[in-house]
Amino acid sequence: MRKTGAGPGDCLLINGITGTLGLGAALIALGSGVSRILGTARDAARLRRLEAIGAGRIETMQIGTGDVAAWARARNGGEGVDAVIDCVGPGAPPEQMMHSIYALRRGGRVVNIGGTGGPVSMDVHWMMDEQISLIGSNWFSAAQGQALAEMAPVGSLDL
User: Which residue from 51, 63, 73, 136 lies 20 to 30 Å from 97 (Cα-Cα)?
Assistant: First the structure.
């Protein structure tokens, strides 16, 4: 979450929101005050349950039912989202990651924590023009884990 820079006033898209990493990202985003959380995944029932957790701050789309980038942009005034956390795992098609990247606004950031299975074909010219940042992340430091754990007792992270 910290690598996205997302917080109050921001719109975050979590690709693969119903998996272990995606659910964790959604809970941390809620606890960090992210204003709007958009999520994509395959399982419609899990998506509905996740929306119920979000108290009106989470909106979801089932993968395969439409254009993810257009859907996300439409929910953020056409501007695109501030950040993307890509949580899809090795079984997902690599194109799925790019669909979420195209939802970013100019200057947006994507953090890949899922390890998409296979090479991802990227339009680096578009990414350069739009000033998109792609950040890889593999776990966290002990200090970051401690900071996360300290969110629970003060009530900002509901476990």
Answer: 51
